[in-house]
Amino acid sequence: MEPRYTLHYAPDNASAILRLVLEELDIAYTTQLVDRSTNEQNSASYRALNPTGKIPTLITPHGAMSEVAACLLYLSEQHKALAPTAESADRPAFLKWLLFTANTLHPDLAMHFYLHRYGDDAAIASMRKAVIERLKDHLTLIDRHISTDTPAYLGGDRLSVLDFYVGYTLRWCALYPRTHASWFRLSDYPALARLAARLETRPSMAAVQKAEGLGLTPLTAPRQATPPEGVAL
Ligand SMILES: N[C@@H](CCC(=O)N[C@@H](CS)C(=O)NCC(=O)O)C(=O)O
Asked: Which protein residue's CA is at the shortest distance from atom 18 of ligand 1?
């Protein structure tokens, strides 16, 4: 049978979150490398699929999709898995934290990675300090949500797409940008540390580790990716 999805990806980019979920759902998919060394995400052909020039893009039977959170919701709805259902009491908190991750945590991380796009050298130091404080505060909020409101996972008592989204950001916090990652200690967020260890036992994580060269402990003790194709940043 023809794979239903094609994931346009770059190693260790936000596309890895969708790859994890495709693996977890055990769905056939193909991948298409976006070569970041040539800035391919800004090529006319890539922007025709995803006008934001961001990675990932997911080609679905309904057309090209982008935005991680939108793709995660789409996959969970299409495959009726990995999310509390609309009738579940866990759905409101799941949606709240999914949107918080997409519109606050992930953009703050992107700002931290690409701070040179936001100001000159003089402005960067104070912006860096502010964005790191925000990241710490927001990771603490998420950590408290798991430890006080839910038994183990972010979306209630069962694993959901949200766990993969937040779990993967822990890797980025520890690694990027290489010169400014020392602020992050996973042990400061004990519930997230437990979640990271749980996610590392999933076969889906082993598949993504292999495909993108993430190493054996990609969330709890990450090292720079050594991908079989493409470059991470
Ligand atoms: N809001 C986007 C953000 C995705 C994003 O930031 N992707 C990064 C890679 S992890 C990217 O494409 N960076 C390339 C660039 O900014 O030029 C989403 O949720 O998909």
From this structure: 67
Instruction: Name the nearest CA neighbour of 30 among 6, 65, 59.
Output: 6
Buried b (16+ CB within 10 A) or exposed e, 96-131: ebbebbbeebbebbebbeebeeeeeeeeeeeebeeb
Helix 161-175 × helix 68-79 angle, to 10°: 150
Pocket test for ligand 1, best of 41, 43, 55 (most atoms within 8 A of CB): 55
What is the per-residue pLDDT across 73-122, written as a single tens digit (0 to 9) for each?
999 999 999 999 999 999 999 999 999 999 999 999 999 999 999 999 88
Give me 19's structure tokens.
Answer: 């790859």
pLDDT value for 233: 72
CATH number for domain 91-202, candidates 1.10.287.130, 3.40.50.300, 1.20.1050.10, 3.30.565.10: 1.20.1050.10
Does the C-beta of 13 come closer than 6 Å to ligand 1? yes
